[in-house]
Amino acid sequence: MSEDGQQAGGGNAGQKKQKPDRFEKARLDKLDKIVEMGLDPFGQRFDDHLSLSEARAKVPAESGETGPTVRVAGRIMNRRKAGKLRFYVIKDQTETIQLLFSRGDLSEEQWTLMGHLDLGDLIGIDGVAWRTDSGEPSVKVEHLTVLCKSLTQPPEKYHGLEDEETKLRQRYKDLIYGDGVLENMLKRSSIIDSVRQTLRGHRFHEVETPVLHAIAGGAAARPFITHHNTLDMELYLRIALELHLKRLMVGGIERVFEIGRVFRNEGVDKTHNPEFTMIEIYQAYGDYRSMMDLTEQIVVDAAKAVSDSTVLPWGDDGDTIDLTPPWPRKTYGELFAEHAGCDMQDSQAVAAKAKSLGIETEGSHPDVIINEVFEATVEDHLQGPVFVTDYPASICPLTKRKQDDPNIAERFELFVKGMELANAYTELNDPRLQEDLFQTQLAGMSDEDSMAKMDHDFIRALKVGMPPAGGLGIGIDRLVMLLTNSHRISDVIFFPLLRHENPPA
């Protein structure tokens, strides 16, 4: 069994300490020999080293030429022997580079120290930039420093980490040895930086609002519940950022956004994780059309931050996502008629369609049935990017109605490859209507639940006066999925939620 398999079940407190396997024992023996040489096998600070991409830039263009001295650091990924020469490859977060150890260039102590190295060790190198006769960017080693002795055997060279649960549970190994994993995760940072830059360019202010809420509001979702001992009160991990950001608009911050973690005590699948990252954006004196323009620019700018083109690969069969603006805008009603095959205002036809799809209609609001039919028949066809606009008003309790049709809400959702990426409204700022809609939404709950869910302070804030505004929410994890050709949300979250590795007895 590989070391990965042997270690997959260990680590719970209270378990008997495992004896090292033969791989770890061999590494511990080498660690002891490093200590006997008077060296620290876990290293010290190593200042002024270049990233490997910077070091490669200093390598001469012509084969066989030497360049300036360089200092680099990285993890050993590969090695081979050639007589009195040793070739190693190290990797950092930017690149890889080849190292040349020559017996004639190193002291006896340094050559011996090199013999105590293993794949996975972290080392520092002082040497000379050089391009081999075959054209490989390299560093001729003049001095070796051990920075951390790895006690774990790497995955088998040609197969790497194959078990999907091991990849997610031991993400640190996946980042080191998984093909393209580290690069995609670093793209996540570039995408988030781009979103911030776009919004700052439009004079938006970034804020932080509470994660612990006294009321679970701003979305229809099941919250995680906790308890504050000192105040003796139940609190909820936030399910949305919306209501606090709108309070700030009332207070005078006319363009405001927050990128934050949101928590929903619901299912786990390819596009859902109970803890995820959202950005919510509010622009005073705008509407949902303003948010469409802003959404388009945010996504296109983010794509340009990680790619040279707005046409990105999707999947392994040559499919692409073309983000070149402008994006089409289609109404909910016309898409419903096209794909469900009936008018959404024809209640009998909608009920018949729902029945044919196995959707339960008894006791459900007509617009809820319409939306379930929409999800079942339309969303998979929305390869997009496409803005779906003008939703049934009753399923949008925080949204302004169209002036010429109060049954339709000024809302859009952006879909790409059948996945909802963004959701936006012309925000409702009438406190009386908002209170009525909250009451309707809470109808049927117990009195206790209604008191817990009704956000009276938010109504009080609206009575002070919130400017007409457009509001937008974008799922950051899903955006990263699309821009990195990743098909599971767990592939773009560093540490997705997993079941207990060893369930409690």
UniProtKB/TrEMBL annotation:
Q: Which cofactor does it need?
A: Mg(2+)
Query: What's its catalytic activity?
Result: tRNA(Lys) + L-lysine + ATP = L-lysyl-tRNA(Lys) + AMP + diphosphate
Pfam families in the record, alphabetically?
tRNA-synt_2, tRNA_anti-codon
What's noted on cofactor binding? Binds 3 Mg(2+) ions per subunit.
Q: Which residues form the Aminoacyl-transfer RNA synthetases class-II family profile domain?
A: 188-496
GO CC annotation terms, alphabetical = cytosol
Question: Which segments carry the region annotation Disordered?
Answer: 1-23
EC number(s) given by UniProt: 6.1.1.6
Family indicated by similarity: Belongs to the class-II aminoacyl-tRNA synthetase family.
On subunit structure and binding partners, the annotation says: Homodimer.
Answer yes or no on keyword Protease: no
Q: Which UniProt keywords apply?
A: Aminoacyl-tRNA synthetase, ATP-binding, Cytoplasm, Ligase, Magnesium, Metal-binding, Nucleotide-binding, Protein biosynthesis
**GO MF annotation: an example:** tRNA binding
Q: Where is the protein found, in the record's own terms?
A: Cytoplasm
Annotated residues that bind Mg(2+) 2 are located at 420
UniProt superkingdom: Bacteria
Species for this entry: Fuerstiella marisgermanici
Q: What is this protein called?
A: Lysine--tRNA ligase
BP GO terms, sorted: lysyl-tRNA aminoacylation
Q: Which residues bind Mg(2+) 1?
A: 413, 420
InterPro entries found in the cross-reference section = Aa-tRNA-synt_II (IPR004364), aa-tRNA-synth_II (IPR006195), aa-tRNA-synth_II/BPL/LPL (IPR045864), Lys-tRNA-ligase_II (IPR002313), Lys-tRNA-ligase_II_N (IPR044136), Lys-tRNA-synth_II_C (IPR018149), NA-bd_OB-fold (IPR012340), NA-bd_OB_tRNA (IPR004365)
